[in-house]
Amino acid sequence: MFEKGNKVNLGRKNPHAGRKKKLSTVMKEALRNVDANIDVIFQALIDKALEGDREAQIYLIDRRLGKPKQAMELEVEKKVTAADMVQIYQLMEKPRKLLEGGKDAEKDELKQTIRGNI
């Protein structure tokens, strides 16, 4: 196939050659136009928003204040009280102390208990 004298695909040009460069050139020119006219573009956007264009209003508010965070609803059967938090902290205190300074046998036993509960 690639032997001397084989004329496979010789003389044919890629029909897409140069498209990337042309697209890059066109994009750069468009961005230069935007940069040169940014004040006019934003003034037109502001004018549309003041005239009542909802999309322009939303865009400007989102740009100025940031988009709102997605709301999440959680259904909880019971509210956590301060007493509940104290109880949770007390339950966590013993394992923390054991892991920090307990004997190796106690640490291993605690780790096995934790792995069994997960």
Can you tell me the number of structural domains?
2
| Largest sheet entry | none
Cα end-to-end separation: 63 Å
The helix/strand order is HHHHH
Helix content: 55-70%
Average pLDDT for all residues = 77
* Class per helix and strand makeup: mainly alpha
Count of separate DSSP helical elements: 5
Q: What is the radius of gyration computed over CA atoms, rounded to a whole number of angstroms?
A: 34 Å
Number of strands: 0
Shape: flat
Instruction: Point out poorly predicted stretches.
Output: none
What kind of assembly state do the chains in view correspond to? single chain
Q: What portion of the residues fall into strands of 2 or more residues? A: under 5%
Report on the architecture of this protein.
By secondary structure, the chain is mainly alpha-helical. It folds into two domains: 19-65, no CATH class; 82-117, no CATH class. It has five helices and no strands. It is flat and about 80 Å long. It starts with 18 loop residues before the first helix and ends with a helix.
